[in-house]
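Extended Data, record MMPL family transporter
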Amino acid sequence: MPTRIESVPKPGLAHRWGAFVAAHWRTVLGGWAVLLVACAVCVPVLESRLRAPDFTVDTAESAHARQVLADHFPTIGAEQDVVVFDGHGRSVRTPEYQEAVTRALTAVRTTHDVSEVLGPFDGGPINLIAADQSSAIAIVSLVGTETRRGAIADEITGKLRRISSSTIYIGLTGHSPQQNDQIRVGVEDTTQAEAIGLPVALLLLVLAMGALVAAAVPVGMAVAGIAGAYGLIFLLSTLLHFDTLVLAVATMIGTGVGIDYSMFLVSRFREELAHTGIEDRRAGVRRAVAVTVDTTGRNILASGLIVMISLGALFVVRVPIFRAVAGGVAAAVAAALLISLTLLPAVLAGLGHRINAGSLPARFQPPDTRAVRGESRWERWAATIMRRPVVFACAALGVLVLSALPLAGMKFGLDAGVQALAEQPSGRATQVIEQKFASGLLAPLQIVGTTRADGPLDAEQARRTREFFAKIGDDHRIAQVLPETVEGRAVATVILRIPFDSTDATDLVKSLRADARKIGESDGPVLRIGGATAEYVDFGNEITDRSALVFGLVLAASFIFLIIVFRSVLLPIEAILMNMFAIAAAMGITVAIFQWGLGENILDFHSRGFVQVFLPTVVFAVLFGLSMDYEVFLIGRVKEIWDRDGDNESAVAAGLAHTARPISTAAAIMVVVFGSFVTAHVLEDKQIGFSLAVAVAIDAIVVRLILVPALMRLFGRWNWWLPSISGKRFPVRRRRVNRKVFLLKPEKADRM
């Protein structure tokens, strides 16, 4: 039978906070009820504020070109969209067809903030009637902010829907119409993923916790946390630009950490409740809540702070979408922490021993919740690792290195998500354009020619600019070049034959920029290339330039924070190296699935031959923080025993035995929650959900349950080494808190 070891009570701030919440649990529940209702009211307003993903780099060439267009070429507008007409074989020359075109374009022209409309019969510089004479297009120029253009696109789409018929289809596509549809698809994908992930997570919790109520509480806290996260994101939406990608990532992270944090706390509460030794049941419940907050509560606070510290590094990337991801996910983690450290202790205090209601048979109960604790399979697993640490460490490292090998051939690109819109209004219009017109018509390049101070060109500069525009028209990737001059400044709208988000298109932008720089030598014109493809190129360059800084900030901040938490130098180094191995392995598998296309049929996508350019940086920042959940939870429990007992081997074995079940359960839940997003229609959501799910599985199984215990066994007392400053060693405090810890039998530890 395990030996019970009592520690001397020494209440700290966390212990007192837990006791306070337990004593005033009704007030806390009432306050949270009001807050959550307010957050729920904010959700529809937040969804109405969602905008298109903003990949613009603040100081990039494409951003400068966009500003020049807005300032000096008002007729072009801030955006050009396309009205599509498809007669299903009926000729555009029939009276019925021409009447439909006239009605549609009249409706578009009378829409506020539409600056110009070029119809198929207006005789413009570009042929707007398809070769089969059954389809036609019109070019629509919009002005205003991005939010305003989205509203205009919705208004025009509604007008055209009322004019469209079964014989003549009329629809709108372009940047804003597509982004409006992507927002709708993204919200639907997030709702669908939650509908899949939460029920499966509840089932896993029932099996892991061995009681229905104990399993339902973490799911309820996760739902409350998501509501709280949406409330915080709503407040931040006045400062930051949020889109459906941010909402999807925040939802998956918030759900995962919300369930994990709550499950860890509920598990510790039930353990303390089973061994409280106090006859007064209410006093025993209050003490169990206080000890739970003082121990596991400290650990989840540390892990949550590490997640937010890691996310903070994304702010150095000068792209709005990175700031939005960092802010949105940080809000989700902050909400999960607030719920876990305030609402959940109040719920536990209110439930008391009813947390065990709906218990499964005894054989399904966690050993720590039993009054008499026998040897578990996790104790036997810990003993096995302690006996052969070198074998297990080498095997785990071999798996990680093998999984990371595909990284050697990783390629980057940026998929605009057009494939996900096939069933949406803009998607149908896009299909007509791709089949019967130049596929790059929806997002042309725009080359702006000015002086270095954005002034008008002189005669020589204008001549060089015209020659450049004429020369690029011979490129086989370009369908047409449409030059225009306004007050001495030149612009060329370049329509591509290739998809605007393809690698061929980005290669074209790079070659055009190289040629433009040569034209600008010797006091020549300054030719700036803008448009969606150019923005993607600048976005990729910014990520490449800033990734090393992001990685360095995350590593440095995490190292310092972990030294403070663990009071050790070696353990933070181990944690950082193991995290990097796990992330590399996860990204390697992601490359094999999405770049090589090994999972196309299973996951229902078409490989573009690359992974999203922002994926490694975002996944690194998010996962580096998330993986610390298990590290802090495992090492925190080991340190409890080490601080009290001073026996490294026994502490590692007992810490692993106590935490392996909740860690494996938490990882399984995270995998389910993140993995549910592979059902999304948008490719970037699939890639993020898949990579996070794989990384969590690798981190929990290979790293935390095998590699970390094996290395800690090998390093022995060096795990807890802390160097001295000015010849005086930092004190390693043996902190005693008001709790009971159950260790393996001494004779069993000796055999390890």
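Summary. The domain at 444-530 is CATH 3.30.70.60 (Alpha-Beta Plaits).
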